[in-house]
Amino acid sequence: MDRQPIDIRHIWEARRRIRPLVGKTPLVESEELSRLAGGPVFLKMETHHEIHAFKIRGAANKILRLAPEDRKRGVTTFSTGNHGMAVASIARRLDIPAVICVSRNVPAAKTEAIRRLGAKLHVHGESQDEAESACYRLQREEGLSVIPPFDDPDIIAGQGTIGLELMEDLPELQTAVIPLSGGGLLAGIGMAVKTNQPDSRVIGVTMEGPAVMHYSLKEGKPLVMRETATLADSLLGGIGTRNRYTFDMVRHYADDSVLVSENQIVEGIAFLLNHHRTLAEGAAATTVAAVLSRKFSFDGKPAVLIISGANIDSSTLFETLEKASRSSYPNSTG
Ligand SMILES: *Cc1c(COP(=O)(O)O)cnc(C)c1O
Fold first, then answer.
1. Which one of 200, 300, 307, 325 is CB 3.0 to 4.6 Å from 39, fit for a cystine?
2. One of this protein's GO BP terms (predicted)?
3. Do 318 and 186 share a structural domain?
């Protein structure tokens, strides 16, 4: 790639900047997945943040860089849920007003959490792209600073701090398996991991259906797709037809991009509950689903699956576990 929006130094700076607000998350080995893969497989538990998702990293890095007068006017964003919770959480801790724009498709567990965190919630339209338009209107009309969910150098650097923690805990890491939507998560981790070990492998995972980044990579340009219902609701939303950073970075850092079905995501959620007593949302369980359904091959060297979040409606969770109990995967009900 000719021109990177950030370099590894920005990720180190982000790490120092966000440290007072964002803790390091655990890395745990999965015995069962290691056995299946024929080599050590670890889980990076981004479910352990206060808001139960990694988005707190990028949001903290971006908001901490705002000028004092911008902080006073306030921030806004558009989100499928977790990024909205992240912005609301950081804004509250720094005493900054926040307006979070979401579409009507965002699950109740997430919109209620945003309200509880004290932000103003703006429900608008039927898709993430419509929520985005509402957000930029607030920027124009009220002078609020937009905290973009992925296509921004400070957001990418913030998410990249996960990669630095991985290097610290598992320097021999060979494969990173990363849920993929707008690509901020994969771009940041990809840069951190491959700067350290250029021949390591980065694999993106999306749900079948509106896997916008996946199909955009195949077409060689950003596409627009209709949203459809999925358990991996945090992976919904376009990448923007005027994508500036993440499309090129994901193209550069991802060695492979794979898709998993809704049933495979169900198995991923059930697996994490049964074998790790860990609650994961659909987007996070895609990485486990990709391993269970053998979407790529292992070389016996250490691999990490990013377990990116745990914000799932209880009704969705009940339905999911019911489905899992009827499925063929052994031990899926424990
Ligand atoms: C946002 C999100 C992702 C995808 O991150 P991108 O930077 O948009 O690719 C994955 N998992 C969860 C839980 C998320 O909230």
1. 300
2. L-serine catabolic process
3. yes
**Index of the ligand 1 atom closest to the CA of residue 185:** 7
Domain-located, residue 272: yes
Reported as a single tens digit per residue, the pLDDT across 19-45 is 999 999 999 999 999 999 999 999 999
Question: Does position 129 have pLDDT exceeding 90, yes or no?
Answer: no
Atom of ligand 1 nearest to the CA of 180: 9
Last residue of a domain, one of 114, 146, 178: 146
Domain membership flag for residue 36: yes
277, pLDDT greater than 70: yes
Same domain for 30 and 18:
yes
Instruction: Indicate whether 162 and 235 sit together in one domain.
Output: yes
Question: What's residue 332's pLDDT?
Answer: 44
pLDDT digits (tens, 9 = 90+) for 292-302: 999 999 999 99
- 308: Cβ below 6 Å to ligand 1? yes
The boundaries of the domain holding residue 24 are 8-54+152-333
Q: Are 58 and 89 in contact (CB under 8 A)?
A: no
Residue 3 lies in a domain: no
56 CA to centre of ligand 1 in angstroms: 11
In this structure, the answer to whether residues 224 and 283 fall within a common structural domain is yes
Q: What is the CATH number of the domain that holds 140?
A: 3.40.50.1100
Rounded to the nearest angstrom, the distance between the alpha carbon of 185 and the centre of ligand 1 is 6
152 CA from centroid of ligand 1 (Å): 14
The CA 235 to ligand 1 mean position distance, Å, reads 6
Q: Is 286 in the pocket of ligand 1 (CB under 6 A)?
A: no
From 241, 202, 272, select the one nearest 32 (Cα to Cα).
Answer: 272
Q: How many angstroms is it from 206 CA to the middle of ligand 1? A: 10
Q: Domain count of the chain? A: 2
